[in-house]
Design goal:
The protein is α+β, with helices and mostly antiparallel strands. It is 22% helix and 40% strand.
Amino acid sequence: MTHSRRSFLSSLTSLLLPWLPTVGWARLSSPKPDNASPLIDAIAKETGGQPPTESELVKLETPDLAEDGSIVPITLSSEIPNVDTIWIFVEKNPTPLAARFDLEKNLDPFVSLRIKMNESCDVLAMLKSGNDYYSTKKYVRIVVGGCG
C-alpha cells in the first residue's frame, strides 16, 4: 500500500491537533499570578532582579496634583556620586518604564522631563551607581486626561 505525502501529513496533523492546547498554547493563555505587578516586573527586568534601596539622596520633584495627565513635569536629581543610569517608572501606566537615561561618569545626575500618566499613582525614580540601585517615589494625583 503506497501512501502519499499529503495523506501522511493529514494523518500526522489529525493525531497531533488534539494535543496542541495541552502542550504549549495553554501556557500562553494561563493567567499571571495574583501577586504579579507590571511595575515590579519592569524594575526586576532593568536591575536583573536586584531590589533598589530607598534613599533620601535621590530627589524627585513632581506636582502633588497634575491638572493634565498627558504632560506631568518630573525633575530628578541626586547627590549620589558616579550615577550610570536613571529610570522613571509610572506604576499604573500600561508600560511602567516611562524613561531611561544612560549617563557619562562626569555628568551630574539631573534630568527634567514631562511624562504621560494613565491615572493617579506613584511615580518611582531609580538610579544606578556602581552595582547598587537607589530609588524614591512620590504619589501624583491626575485630574484630567492621561495616556489611556
